[in-house]
Write a structure and sequence with these properties.
This protein is globular. It has helices at 28-38, 52-60, and strands spanning 9-13, 42-46, 83-86. It has a single domain, classed as 3-Layer(aba) Sandwich (Rossmann fold), CATH 3.40.50. The protein contains two helices and three strands. The protein has 87 residues and is α/β, with parallel strands linked by helices. It has a three-stranded parallel β-sheet with strand order 1-2-3, covered by helices on one side. The longest helix has 11 residues, at 28-38. This is (wild Malaysian banana) hypothetical protein. It comes from Musa acuminata subsp. malaccensis. GO terms for molecular function: NAD binding; UDP-glucose 6-dehydrogenase activity.
């Protein structure tokens, strides 16, 4: 990758914490995706059990915010700009 992932499209196969569930609480995929986004990579996520809306919310949250009610967490449109969810 020429020592950088900047501008490269990377596929993430599976986002949920456990197989065959839509449970994304504390999933390592959130930190991995945020790290890649921090390095300016373009991410394409595939997980048939997790909705696109849930993935967008998880990536927009600060660490450990999942423990608080959803209506208290603002969505940041720039936080997940380089993310696409595929089916």
């Amino acid at each position: 990758m020429f020592n950088t992932v900047s501008g490269k499209k990377i596929a993430v196969l599976g986002f949920a914490f456990k197989k065959d569930t839509g449970d994304t609480r504390e999933t390592p995929a959130i930190d991995v995706c945020k790290g890649l986004l921090g390095d300016k990579a373009k991410i394409s996520i595939y997980d048939p059990q997790v909705s696109e809306d849930q993935i967008q919310r998880d990536l927009a949250m600060n660490k450990f915010d999942w423990d608080h009610p959803i209506h208290l967490q603002p969505m940041s449109p720039t936080a997940v700009k380089e993310v696409t969810v595929t089916w």
